[in-house]
Design a protein that fits this description.
This protein has 333 residues and is of the alpha/beta class. It has 11 helices and 12 strands. It binds iron/sulfur cluster. This is Radical SAM protein.
Length: 333
């Protein structure tokens, strides 16, 4: 059995996967396939930009693959310096070219938008025999195989992956970074948790669709960094979470979760231990409401980050508007 993973890129409020970044989804999908018996050399990975200049041999890989998995989803699209996300037309063309089973998924299931400021639209893709993974694509791909055989996609329920599953798949799928065009300078987007812990959610944001926050064990994140580092990765961004200050935060009944500074110290010191020669350790996403509600704990965490990170790091606060009327109307933080 052979598989091709096509990276059409993702850009979400709390996850980035446009080169030089590789999103966790790609590594999870590769790991899910590995756990179902695919060998590393059975799995080919292309970014959409590299496929645009594909050789005839690359096209043959696509034609011959038993399964082609296309990841896409620009829910908060931006302007990119040297990459262009996959278009609906390209998805249709690739699905026509591939003869095996085709699975499309990722944040694209929530809608499709070409650029920032434009609302996401329903998928209008004309590719009849392509299956849209309506929940987590990595879980759908995993469930598609049983005892080395492909199951009927109609029998597969669309579900979310578990934290335990991505703990395993992230390590098994780490090898795929070597196929990224920017390897070894690829930037690995790391997930600590997904799902926004706020009780109400900002009107524009898709993070609510991931449900309650599902925090990964610190040891799993460190183990994933270790696997990636052993395979040559030197650039990491802890970017896949809505608020890094709230990683393993406690619900003490207040509007805002109470941060856990010790957890961040364990995470950052652990990463430095397993990846002593890393070149980049950056972060993304902090919620200013956490800083206002818990200034002491937030400061402690920020000091921890400064102790271990590399230069050029930015704590993006994500303040959409300072206009009280706009904040109220859109439930902004
Ligand atoms: S605080 Fe708002 S923008 Fe940030 S993840 Fe939650 S809902 Fe989305």
């Amino acid at each position: 059995m052979r598989a091709v993973i096509i990276d059409g890129y993702v850009d979400e409020p709390a996850c980035f996967g446009v080169p030089p970044y590789i999103s966790p989804y790609i590594r999870y999908i590769a790991g899910a396939l590995r756990e179902k018996g695919f060998l590393e050399h059975d799995i080919d990975y292309f970014t959409i930009d590299s496929l645009r200049t594909a050789t005839p041999e690359d096209a043959q890989l696509l034609k011959k693959a038993d399964i082609v998995v296309i990841l896409s989803g620009m829910t908060v699209p931006g302007k990119y310096l040297r990459s262009s996300p996959i278009t609906p037309g390209e998805i249709e063309n690739l699905c026509t070219l591939a003869s095996g089973i085709k699975v499309l998924g990722g944040p694209i299931r929530l809608g499709f938008s070409k650029e920032g400021g434009k609302g996401a639209k329903e998928l209008g893709i004309d590719a009849e025999d392509t299956i849209l993974a309506k929940s987590d694509i990595e879980a759908f791909v995993y469930d598609l195989f049983e005892n080395g055989k492909l199951c009927d996609p109609e029998d597969i329920s669309h579900r979310m992956r578990t934290v335990d599953e991505i703990g395993r798949w992230s390590k098994l799928g780490a090898f795929i970074i070597a196929q990224h065009p920017d390897y070894p300078h690829v930037m690995c987007e790391m997930e600590t948790y997904r799902g926004c812990g706020r009780k109400v959610h900002c009107s524009f944001c898709t993070e609510r669709f991931y449900g309650h926050s599902d925090h990964r064990p610190v040891a799993d994140v460190i183990a994933e960094v270790s696997s990636l580092y052993d395979l040559g990765a030197r650039n990491f961004r802890i970017g896949r979470q809505p608020d890094l200050l709230s990683y393993h935060a406690k619900d003490i009944g207040a509007d805002v979760l109470q941060p856990s500074p010790d957890v961040l110290e364990t995470l950052y010191s652990g990463i430095r231990k397993v990846a002593p020669e890393l070149k980049v350790l950056h972060m993304d996403n902090t919620n200013p409401a956490t800083m206002v509600a818990y200034p002491e704990q937030s400061l402690e965490i920020l000091k921890t980050i400064v102790k271990y990170h590399t230069s050029g790091d930015i704590a993006a606060l994500g303040i959409e508007s300072a206009d009280p009327a706009v904040v109220r109307a859109n439930d902004l933080k």
